[in-house]
């Protein structure tokens, strides 16, 4: 491997291919390597992706065999989005983070992985499905409470219907509400 040391040089190039990679008009910086390191110069470090307008895209695209599988970034708006694809052609919006409010939206069904018991130390605002008791539970004011139990909890199996902000989580029937202060109340 050849190494070129440039302690304080300024280099300007239209395209750069490293490690045997070929840069092109689309991928003007191209790298073949097992890993890459962007190190701090005495403090923190930021990787910046700047887009021209809100309608443009600034994102990280994860691929398998040069076919997209996941994308995280500002894709077509200034809201942070997480998208996934099984084939690189059809994409599903999984999560959206609203830039103005910080609200998180699940764009599809949100499934809580069933646990055989309650978590060891749940925090206020935590939600879980206890498969051992068949109860959909939450934590409020330091107390774990049943949100839904019995046949109704088994029927929903810990799945929250998507596209409803967490100020009003619904299934075919309303389960619970979150107040502005984060308090949880039953239907």
Summarize the structure.
The chain is mainly β and 187 residues long.
Report on the structure:
With 187 residues, the protein is mainly beta. Among the domains are: 50 residues, no CATH class; 77 residues, no CATH class. It is built from one helix and 15 strands. Strands 3-4-5-6-7 form a five-stranded antiparallel β-sheet, with no helix packed on it. A three-stranded antiparallel β-sheet has the order 9-10-11. Strands 13-14-15 form a three-stranded antiparallel β-sheet, with no helix packed on it. The longest helix has 6 residues. The radius of gyration is 23 Å and the shape is elongated. 10% of the residues are buried.
Give a topology summary:
Elements: E1 16-18, E2 29-31, E3 57-64, E4 67-75, E5 80-84, E6 92-97, E7 104-106, E8 110-111, E9 127-130, E10 135-140, E11 143-149, H1 151-156, E12 159-160, E13 168-170, E14 174-178, E15 184-186
Parallel strand pairs: 1-2
Antiparallel strand pairs: 3-4, 4-5, 5-6, 6-7, 8-12, 9-10, 10-11, 13-14, 14-15
Number of helices: 1
Number of strands: 15
What proportion strand?
Answer: 35-45%
Derived structural class: mainly beta
Strand order of the largest sheet: 3-4-5-6-7
Shape: elongated
* Mean pLDDT across every amino acid position: 80
Q: Report the radius of gyration as a whole number of Å.
A: 23 Å
Reported for the largest beta sheet, the result is:
5 strands, antiparallel
Helix/strand order:
EEEEEEEEEEEHEEEE
Uncertain segments are 153-187
- How much helical structure, as a percent, in the residues? under 10%
Instruction: State the separation between the terminal residues, measured CA to CA.
Output: 66 Å
């Amino acid at each position: 491997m050849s190494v070129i040391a440039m302690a304080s040089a300024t280099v300007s190039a239209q395209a750069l291919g490293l490690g045997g990679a070929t840069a092109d008009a689309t991928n003007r910086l191209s790298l073949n390597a097992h890993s890459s390191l962007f190190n701090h110069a005495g403090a923190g470090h930021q990787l910046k992706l700047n887009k021209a307008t809100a309608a443009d895209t600034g994102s990280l695209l994860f691929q398998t065999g040069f076919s997209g599988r996941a994308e995280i970034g500002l894709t077509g708006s200034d809201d942070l989005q997480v998208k996934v694809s099984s084939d690189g052609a059809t994409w599903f919006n999984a999560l959206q983070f609203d830039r103005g409010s910080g609200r998180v939206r699940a764009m599809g069904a949100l499934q809580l992985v069933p646990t055989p018991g309650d978590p060891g130390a749940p925090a206020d605002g935590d939600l879980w499905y206890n498969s051992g008791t068949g109860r959909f539970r939450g934590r409020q004011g330091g107390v774990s409470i049943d949100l839904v139990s019995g046949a109704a909890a088994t029927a929903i199996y810990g799945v929250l219907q998507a596209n409803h902000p967490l100020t009003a989580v619904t299934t075919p029937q309303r389960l619970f509400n979150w107040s502005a202060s984060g308090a949880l109340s039953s239907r």
